[in-house]
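Bump. Still looking for Bulb-type lectin domain-containing protein structure tokens.
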Amino acid sequence: MPILFFPFLLLSAIFAQQGQSIVKPGSFLTPTTNPSWPSPSGLYAFGFYKQGNGYAVGIFLAGLPQKTVVWTANRDKPPVPADSKLNFTSDGRLVLQSAQGAETPLASFPEDGSSASMLDTGNFVLLNSANQMIWQSFDFPTDTFLPTQKLFHGQALYSSISDTNKSTGIFRVLMQEDGWLAMYPVGTPYTLEYGYWGAGIGGQRNDVVLRLEVNGHLYLINGAGNIIVNMTGGYPAKDVVYRLTIDPDGILRLYSHDMNQNQNWTVKWFGPNDDACKPKGLCGLNGYCVLVDLQVGCKCLPQFEPVNKEDRSSGCQRNFTMESCKSDRYAMKAVVNTVWENNSYSVFTSTTQDNCGEACLRECNCEAALFKDGVCTKQKLPLRFGRRDQKDSTVALIKVAAFPLVASSFSRPETPSVSVQPVVPPEPTKLPIRKVPGSYGLPFIGPINDRLDYFYKQGREEFFKSRIQKYQSTVFRVNMPPGPFIASDPRVVGLLDGKSFPVLFDVTKVEKKDVFTGTYMPSTEFNGGYRVLSYLDPSESSHGKLKRLMFFLLKSRRGGVALAAEKSAGVVAFPVVLDKVISTVVPRDRKSRSQKEKEDEEEVLVIDGIEFAKDAAVKFDVYINDEDGSPSGPDKTVCRKLCERAPFAYAFEAEENLPQAGNH
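Sorry for the wait, here they are.
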């Protein structure tokens, strides 16, 4: 049904009723003594507000405990000092004046202004001598849209850099000529490829307008008076103030504030509402957005680091220098389930992901490749608009520097051992920590219940899956299912996503002895399948026994085991094929040595010519193909005993058909 709008009340009538709000030429404001001109009710004010180390000029809600800025003049100019003056000059100009007398216009209008006023709608207006409006702030919105305001085709709201810095940010919402309200990153074309949210219907002309009513009704209406899209239906409450703001994170939100209650702003509606990572460019160049507990987080590409940790939109930069084009100096690192802008320079059909990565590795100009559904697109850096999407199968393959030890592993080192730097006690970390969720339950009863779930009621897959869903975490407290049905002390912290939590084992970030006592450093992405991870360092009393057991298992089960090994002293992590590269070194005169000497000596695992010696802490992810997921060998009792007493004393990998941890 068409809605008819009658002309707004004559401005002369408004000012007759609000005479006390009229500002005459010759009036001025200063940041400290007379900072603003209020609206008749005192709800809004026009004038100076604090920003950074100085002051900015704008419109703000002065009648609320928390001052909220809704419009800013010259928003991209630096803050001004306290000795500045906002002057409504005698000849009707509105200027910002420095202490030295330099003037900066705040508004441009076709004729001299005779009066100005801050209205209770949040609109600041200038009038000529005939009380006709010659300028209004509603025509030049910044990041906020107010009730009774209209957004016509070609007009846009631009986000701010932050809540405290009102300079122009990186997102915009535009009223398009085709009648759609759409959101884009700043600096991109107005096309579907770059848009990340929209509202509208097809077949409209350029007369569609965005409106917000005083009751919070937000909608699009065309020139015939027909509402074509209702974003909200309105809210009947009285004494409630509304505002629509495109926030620094690129989300468009409708806020409300009850004037009768001393409370914060409440979000009534927002878009996009399905994924907070959808705003493109949120994490800058070479960064991608991930959701952790529904909160936005940013990650860098492999071997990249943040440009500015305080500003996530600044993106990421390489932490190494590419000095040569030789492919043997580089490797390809996969970042799964991520979508990016496809700005490829070469596209070809590739049978496998490995073929796609190898093609990029061999080409000097290729710095990354995107692989999806058998199509490989070669890319140059920087990559942009990245975000994690578990429903998208795209794999980003990034060219990285091969680790020095890995690069040299194709030939056996001249020295029989690897130099290990002494572990330096960690400095207190400033990284966020999260309490480990989960419960062990009552003594005896808790372990029994967990074992019943694992062995009889749920099975292994559902046992882990249900707990990941319950705790929204791949790290949680649990009575360790593998092992005997009843164990003396089965309580462990289960880590089911070892690849995503390497920080747990980085003694420069986490003090090892505190890792399993109740807190952990949260990961921002979930990779791989469910996994119980083995990790013991040389300070652990059972380290030597466990490592000897693992070496025995690896040597005796080459056909059924795959290994990923990591040395704590370096940054070595690589998969190997055991039947080709693994060997065990035993001292020749071992039999002639005493029992104590035999115990002190330890077998040395050699992988691709790299030795993992006694003084090197080694982490193993062991994939064992037995049906029950247990390690095989003549001495299971040793393993069971270790498993009862130490978390992650041995490892098993669940079958490949288990759902990915990132899906929960």
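Residues 152 and 217 are 17 Å apart (CA to CA).

Edit: fixed formatting.
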